[in-house]
Amino acid sequence: MKKALSFFVFPISLILLFTSCTPLNGGTVSGAGADITHDITLNADISSMDFDIGDDDQNNAYDAENAVRITFSASGISSSSSTAAVDGNTVTICKAGTYILSGKNGNARLAVNSGKKDKIRLVLDGLDLTSTDGPAVYVKEAGKIIVTTVKGKENSLSDGKNYTFTDENTTPDAVFFSRTDLTFNGEGTLSVNGNYKHGIVSKDDLIITGGTLLVNSTSTGIEGKDSVKISGGTITVNSGTDGIRTAKIDDPAKGYIFIGGGEINITSGNDGIQAATVLNVIDGSVSLITGGGSANSSTSGGKNTPGRGMGGPEKPSGSTSDTPSAKGIKAASDVIISGGTLSIDSSDDSVHSNTTVTVSGGTLTISSGDDGIHADSGLCVSEGTITITKSYEGLESADIVISGGKISITASDDGINAAGGKDSSAVDGRPGKGEFARSTGTITISGGYTVVNASGDGIDSNGTVTVSGGITLVSGPTNNANAAFDYESSAAVSGGILVALGSAGMAAGFTSAENQGAMLVNFTSVQKAGSFAVCDKDGKVIASFNCPKQYSSAVFTAPGIRSGNTYTLVSGGTVSDADQNGFSEGGSITGGTSVASVSMTSDLYNNGRGNNPGSPGGIPPGGHGVVPPGGRR
Q1: Distance, CA of 256 to chain centre
Q2: Cβ pair 524, 509 in contact under 8 A
Q3: Measured between alpha carbons, how far is residue 116 from residues 54, 140, 141 in Å?
Q4: How far apart are CA 53 and CA 55, in angstroms?
Q5: Alpha carbon 311 to its chain's center
Q6: At 46, phi and psi to the nearest 5?
Q7: Rounded Cα distance, 33 and 293, in Å
Q8: What is the pTM of this model?
Q9: DSSP letters along 175-225, please?
Q10: Mean pLDDT of the chain
Q11: Closest to 101 in 3D by CA, of 148, 145, 160
């Protein structure tokens, strides 16, 4: 009779969303925000990568009547067909077909050595198999292996701590070791216990579409050399090194990881998910704890685990070297996130790319011992929700583009940092602390809602800052060695709202303004944490922000700021219709203290005395100093 397990079609090609950025190979990449053009380009040619998952990989149905049955017991192994030949403690499958495995044996092995095009389905129906001297399952040759777990059944595969099993063509080093394509599906449970090294390894593609998969390993949990694709199932990995990884670096169409669904939970000593080329997430739930979590970072005195004070720069794209690290998700090429829910607690960077990171959807909750999101060349956020509750630096890349989404950043150093060059590990004892070239880096903000709470610079570019839209609220440093708004070359505004509050020592304002005005105001006294608002002559709130720390300087721009008008800056008070961050546009304010009155005789106002080009040590042409309430300067 036919055994029909659940079956679904996963139309990945119809829902695949990447980013609004333009790929290196030309053309446009479809997806959310595709009408927005950005200068950040993908490093890889993703059009050559196969992110689709076939019907065979998702189909759990099998023909039980015509299947070969292999039964393991303490007394040995029995097989119902000569296509599964028993020799001592090993049974070897040599022909295409369906094989149902059950029973328990503490020292046996399942081997597959069939035709190069043979498709073999292994149905796990209550199997408990341990091999003491090598892999419990070893696939030497076949066209494809599909492992289906039966609903309601628990299965277990284990190996020993030492291997004597060898093969002349390869070095088996995993509980389930396959030299060909490998798929896991079904509705049952499979536990894999890797006491020697790895849990599951495929030397080709590895696909997971269903079932419950529990992997414990002293080294890597799950590896697909050419690719890993996940669209369903519940996957839990506890690994001594990496959780899930790929290794193919000499083929630009391989080495990628695709996550289109399922629930993934990883606790790893090193990286949680590491792609040799591209990491692409469009859906699913991913929860990662790496290197003991953010509490174990070098900046907080954690022990010297991989990636924290142990190595040099990350491997460049195409390199065969791999410096151990404890990042959450990591790719030698691009990280592309357009959906899904990701929760990452990492001792090193939570999201890391040696080239670009693009976020066009999904929800990311990050706690990092180093950078929240780091990309060597470009970082683009066009949609989605990013919450960084802890980091050394929140967003870091050579070029950063924010055109949409909701972003919340807490950083012990810079909140948003644009700097040129690669991110070098172990500088000053902190992994990822960059050695960057000056006068490079760009920050471009054209949309989104971004809130930054930084102890270092709130927004910091080693080159330029451009603001043309969005809402950006910054609570910057209280020490005068940093600023809420900082840049090396210039800062231009043509739209949007930006409120940046912090210390006055290095305060910098915009260098050019179009369509609206911008002001830098250093106060005569330190203001307490709480509500800050800029109001027009009628008392209407242009914009407000509830700053969680004391501040003595404000950088402000909004469409309501115009040359020829006078504005009042109010500290404290209650703003109507304010959101959870104290932001309101067009509301009213009651109470509070007027701390400055600013007369705009041009589009730029600056009374700063900082050392940054944005605060050149005097009042720019057309600008005036602060007029204290009740009098003139």
Answers
A1: 15
A2: no
A3: 19, 10, 6
A4: 7
A5: 21
A6: -70, -15
A7: 33
A8: 0.89
A9: EEEESSEEEEEESSEEEEEESSSEEEEESSEEEE-SSEEEEEESS-SEEES
A10: 87
A11: 148
CA distances in angstroms from 394 to 370, 410, 430, listed in the order given = 8, 7, 15
Closest CA to 180 of 230, 218, 219, 146: 146
Q: Cβ-count burial of 74 within 10 angstroms (0-12 exposed, 13-18 middle, 19+ buried)?
A: exposed
Residue 239 identity: S
H or E stretch covering 56: helix 55-58
Question: By C-alpha distance, which of 388, 433, 426 is closest to 408?
Answer: 388
* Cα–Cα distance measured from residue 240 to residue 199, given in angstroms and rounded to the nearest whole number: 11
Question: What pLDDT does 304 receive?
Answer: 37
In whole angstroms, give the CA distance from residue 448 to residue 385.
Answer: 10
Distances (CA, A) of 237 to 31, 134, 225, 289, 427: 31, 21, 18, 10, 31
Q: What are the pLDDT digits (tens) for 127-158?
A: 999 999 999 999 999 999 999 999 999 999 99
* Spatial distance between the Cα atoms of 175 and 130, rounded to a whole number of angstroms: 9
Say how many C-beta atoms besides its own lie within 10 A of residue 31's C-beta.
22
Q: Look at residues 430, 436, 482 and name the one whose alpha carbon lies nearest to residue 456.
A: 482
Extended beta strands in 328-372, E state? 329-331, 335-346, 351-353, 356-368
Amino acid identity for residue 624 in this structure: H
Instruction: Let me know: does 507 contact 539? Beta carbons within 8 Å.
Output: no
Question: In the block, which residue shows the tokens 């396959």?
Answer: 178
Token pair 């890391």 in the structure block, residue: 352
Distance CA 148, CA 120 (A): 11
Distances (CA, A) of 293 to 182, 268, 455, 491, 579: 31, 9, 21, 36, 31
Phi-psi region of 623 (alpha: psi -120 to 50; beta: other; left: phi over 0): beta
Name the residue type at position 432.
G
pLDDT band of 189, cuts 50, 70, 90: very high
Two structure tokens written together for 528: 């307490």
Strand ranges for 21-73 from DSSP E: 22-23, 41-42, 62-63, 68-73
Query: Chain-centre distance of CA 135, in angstroms?
Result: 33
Residue that has been written with the tokens 């944005």 in this structure: 614
Percent of the chain with pLDDT over 70: 83
Residue 77 tokens read as 């192994």
